[in-house]
Amino acid sequence: MATQPALSQLVLGYSPMVDRQRGVIATRLTVFPERPDAAVDAAGLLAALAEVWPAPAAGSPPVVRHPLDPTAVSARAPGTRPPVSLNVAGEAALHAVMHAAPGPQLMLEIPAFMATDPAHLGALQALRAAGSVLLIKGRPLKPLAPEALACFSHSIVDLGDERRTADPPPPGVRQVTTVQAGVRTSAELEAAFKRGAVAVLGWTFDDDAPAPSAGRRQVPPDLKVVLELIDGVEREEPVPRLEALLKRDPTLAYRLMRYLNSPAFGLSVEIHSFGHAVMLLGYARLKRWLALLLASSSKDPNAKATMYAAVRRGLLMEELGRSQGDAETRGEMFICGVFSLLDRLLGQPFAELLDSVPVAERVRLALVGDGGPYLPYLDLVRAVENESLFDIRECAERLLLAPAEVNRALLASLRSARQID
After folding, report:
1. Is 44 helix (H, G, I), strand (E, B) or coil?
2. What distance in Å separates the CA atoms of residue 96 and residue 94, rounded to the nearest whole number?
3. Which among 7, 40, 159, 207 could disulfide-bond with 404, CB atoms 3.0 to 4.6 Å apart, if both were Cys?
4. CATH number of 5-57+65-201
5. Alpha-carbon gap, residue 417 to 18, rounded angstroms
6. What is the pTM of this model?
7. How is the chain split into domains, by residue range?
8. 121 phi and psi, to 5 degrees?
9. b/e per residue, 4-22, with b = 16+ CB within 10 A?
10. Which CATH fold topology does 212-420 show?
């Protein structure tokens, strides 16, 4: 994707918006100005975002109802894509974005102190009239004027500021629909939905990692097929043998062909069979897509956000390694990112998993936390997911990466991920 000059002025992070069915219904993109006192090219930022989340064509009907629309069905229709919730840090930067005509595909988070300021009412009303979805962030210190309250569809309340309980409200009392932010564990996610949240913002990676003493979880049969395929590709076994494995699960075969023929893969020729894929791609390039298949095959509803992250980790690691100019290195970085959450997805520690999942030594070192050239990149990816300005800067500087390079890589990976979702 084209590098907008605006991307050099910003630091970006992201997290998922998860609904009650544990599906990811939107991406939250947090935008930090590189310097609080510097002007932000809001138009350039929105142009960069439009390359990832394009606005609907003029005059065309909406492809899908808004994910927080209470009348919308939970599951997305085939071919639809979740929108983005824009969380802009800094009043001046947010003010510039508000006046740069963000498209209707963007949700815009407005801090409570700005929502209660009459000076911003005209801009809020204009955004609402143009189709933007506005979310009030935080608890206002004073009641909003009715005309201001009418601009907002939901409130975002951080877990640390939560005052609701799991008890239902008294008869005749309506609770404000809330999106819970700051969720870090599965228990916090469950509690947020019990309190009535319509969605949550955040990852649940802070759950304890599987311990060796916990015993091995039985690997589902479909994942066993993928593991056998990865092992067979690593050994460069004959194509008929690998095709016979894949035929044991037609659903997996379909998903693999869909991945390989997605726009993200960039092939000019449609692939019709596993043998055709091996002929065109070779074993090394095919392995990365089998890795993606393995990390996105869990049937556990609570694993949806983790699978969402695994795909994006792989794509972001690959983009960050693009300057290396080495296809083998980029492929290993992709697999490193995709596999970095495999212990959570399969319920086994890496010390056990890596006995059955063949990876390069440089990948193994990063996954078990023993260093190697890829671990600093994985640290940067985690900082981006945590939306931590200080950590993103520190990790990027350690790798001698400029903010524009990291931001371009993130947006390119998010765009590619949308093409294969």
Report:
1. helix
2. 5
3. 7
4. 3.20.20.450
5. 17
6. 0.87
7. 5-57+65-201, 212-420
8. -60, -45
9. bebbbbbbbbbbbbbbeeb
10. Hypothetical protein af1432 (1.10.3210)
Helices 274-295 and 304-320, axial angle in degrees (round to 10): 110
Q: Are 179 and 163 within 8 A, CB to CB?
A: no
Rounded distance between C-alpha atoms, residue 103 and residue 59, angstroms: 14
Using CA atoms, how far residue 421 sits from 23, 191, 291, in Å, is 12, 28, 15
Q: Are residues 11 and 32 in contact, defined by beta-carbon separation less than 8 angstroms?
A: yes
Question: Going residue by residue through the chain (421 aa), what tens digit of pLDDT does each one get?
Answer: 566 789 999 999 999 999 999 999 999 999 999 887 777 899 999 999 999 998 776 655 544 455 665 444 333 444 445 689 999 998 999 999 999 988 888 899 999 999 999 999 999 999 999 888 899 999 888 888 999 999 998 899 998 887 765 555 444 433 457 899 999 999 999 999 998 899 999 998 877 667 665 555 566 666 778 888 888 888 889 988 888 888 887 777 888 888 888 877 677 788 888 888 888 888 877 888 888 888 887 778 888 999 999 999 999 999 999 877 688 899 899 999 999 998 888 888 888 888 878 889 999 999 999 899 999 999 999 999 999 999 999 999 999 999 999 999 999 999 999 888 7
